[in-house]
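Hi everyone, sorry if this is the wrong subforum. Our group has a chain we'd like a structural model of before ordering constructs, and none of us has done structure prediction before. Sequence below.
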Amino acid sequence: MLAFECTDAGGAAGEAWRVRLEPDGLRPVPDGENNAQAASAAVRGPAADLLLLLYGRRIWREPVFDVSGDTALLDHWFAHAAF
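Answer:
Right subforum, don't worry. Here is the predicted structure as tokens:
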């Protein structure tokens, strides 16, 4: 599971978008489902930067992002996912 977590001050802080990589693609993980399960990799940053990251306008290695977990999984995600 991958997690993209917002660090903005205010109402958006702590919000996360989680996806599960499956053999036939990706599946968003609904709120409340497997929240106890730790993500294999996580990227934390301001909401605007996360959006640019997901659209391919930024890279996860930039210092604005706090990354933890399996970075090879992140490389796989960004090599095979497009929005």
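For your construct planning: The chain is about 20% helix and 30% strand. Strands lie at 2-6, 16-22, 25-28, 41-45, 66-69.
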